[in-house]
User: Fold these one by one.
Assistant:
Number 1:
Amino acid sequence: FELIKKIVKKYENVFGTFGIHPHETNKNQLVDFQYILNQKKYFNKIIGIGETGLDFYYNHSDKDDQIKSFEEHIKASILLDIPLIIHSRNAEEETLEIFNKYKNDNLKILMHCFTGSKNFAKRLLDLDAFFSASGIITFKNSLELQKTFKFIPLDKLLIETDSPYLAPVPNR
């Protein structure tokens, strides 16, 4: 986080986010909402919380650690009134269950590099979520994901590269 603060302080047109990726929750001291709030007090260029969320595909971190970290990030995002940048892989029901605990708290949700199901997207739209599409939607084996993105309203879509990992075809 110290590097993020230095970079955003040095460059006027660069902004940052704070969070712990789900893969890293067992390697880092918990970044709780109080820590984030203290950083925001001194530094006003933090515009989001994340990348945060749940990843039960690789299980690089303990499920309970991921959930605890995710909920701390949600609390900070609510108190600071800034968006959550969400990573969710193989954790659709668990992600929704956690969001539903906070659904009356003015959540601001951006589903980073969304690869979820159409049903997941429908339920996230009920929470007023935004979705970012990466190069994955150009892959030959992504027909279901393409259908899902056709379903999502245009005013809820963003485009990202997640560079250098998920570049679109033919730039892979």
Number 2:
Amino acid sequence: MRLLTLCGSLRERSSNRAILDAFTRLASRDATVAPYLGMGALPHFNPDLDADRAPPAVSALCQAIDQADAVIISTPEYAHGLPGAFKTLLDWLVGHPPFAGKPVVILHA
């Protein structure tokens, strides 16, 4: 099973990244766990650039989603909502059909 981890924080020493790192260490030997580390490079969402004209960082995100059997998310809460950078990541995935049917697990402390 191929698992993709998405950390909603850009902080290098994020507690959410620590949770995902612990998950990676404890994952089954049958699982391959890959972190997605490109969130900071994603441009602001622009539907005119979606699909065929997607920026390279968006194409890399979609490829990572395509290759994963499931997605593991850990994100902080800012002002009673998701961090802006993580919301941008999700906005880019809304129009990506493979993401819609992907199993998702949320890890939060």
Number 3:
Amino acid sequence: ICDAVFGALGEGDIGQLFPNTDPRWHNAPSKTFLHEAARLVHLRSGRIVNVDATIIAEAPKIAPHAHAMKAMISHVLEVHPNRISIKATTNEGMGFLGRGEGIAAMAVASVDLPQ
């Protein structure tokens, strides 16, 4: 989701803004990065319109956690929960995702910025 917001702003990706080689970010909670995404939007007098995220994983099941994830993301990004979508799908046993060797995620964020 951070990369989606940063991309909508024309910024770099999360690794450029928060390099994994910097010990400050080791074990940092995800909401730290979401706060920064929201801060950058607000610095430009913009607003996040919506977020649509899909998690691709065989396990764990996302549905039991989706409501809490949506609530936290909504709160941190200051976006109404109805404008946050958290979905999950499997890879139907195909590839490393299907074998349960990893998890992937995709997200799109719409950001309204003044001219």
